[in-house]
Amino acid sequence: MTRALVTGGGGFLGSHLVERLERDGYDVTAARQADYDLTSAADTARMFDDAEADLVFHLAAEVGGIGANRANPGRYWYANLMMGAHVLEQARLHETPKLVVVGTVCSYPKHAAIPFREEALWDGYPEETNAPYGVAKKAVLVGAQAYREQYGLNTAFVLPTNLYGPRDNFDLETSHVIPALIRKMLESEEDVVLWGDGSPTREFLFVEDCVEGLVLAAERYDGPEPVNLGAAKEISIRELAELIADVTGFAGEVVWDHERPNGQPRRSVDGTRARELFGFEARTPLREGIERTVAWYSSTVGVGR
């Protein structure tokens, strides 16, 4: 039986991946922050010693929406850089056969051509509000490629677009846009205030589709180049708000706070490389995924219409 280690195994994406791997017959160690502080080299070494894994997925990250990124730029840069560096080093020392590292779409330049192609990662600086996080993740990509070249460490580096789904983070201080909108619209009968003007576009990948992409990358991809995981559908934040209002039954007014930042103008990724290299294509339509997310949140916290 293959032994797998999932950092961030108690988190949003990690919990779904752990379930999938267990269904597939893996012996899984779900590493949680309460057990291992991956910004500590000693804790990371202890985690690798405990897991004795043949396959490692590095999902652990400190991340949030625009507000959280603006409030924690130093922490997000440091924590994500250190976690990635420590995981790479311990994978080398433990001679891990395969490592899958999850990067971020936030690493792309602010004004990269749409759709984002992997070769455009170095064409400019990321959008300012999430640049420290995005740059830290890009540094981990460079580390993975360097460790492959010098030590032969087999690392697949994937770049999912914005994720959503059941078990997402619904804390309004740190959540991303879909869970924040769902919570606000389910819990409010009146106005809902949203940041910016609604014009930015995003591409959203359902969490279970992302898990499928990670498993396929682990099984089929051994190359050095980063690979996007996307859903091949771009939507404006304004249209997204209208969709979530329809799904949740929200009848109030959406008020756009133009004093707040929009974030990156557009985000949509080219999924050609993932499709050609390991056969990944997202299968969950956005409306279906949002309906499933709303149903999960409503049943979990006891709200709904």
Give your account of this protein's structure.
The chain is an alpha/beta fold. The protein has ten helices and eleven strands. Strands 2-1-3-4-5-9 form a six-stranded parallel sheet, sandwiched between helices. A three-stranded mixed sheet has the order 6-8-10. A two-stranded parallel ribbon has the order 7-11. Helix 1 (12-23) links the parallel strand 1 (3-7) and strand 2. Helix 2 packs across helix 4 (73-93) and helix 6 (177-187) packs across helix 10 (286-301). The longest helix is centred in the N-terminal third of the chain and has 21 residues, at 73-93. The chain is globular, with a radius of gyration of 19 Å. The protein starts with a strand and ends with a helix. The mean pLDDT is 95.
Brief characterization of the structure:
With 305 residues, this protein is an alpha/beta fold.
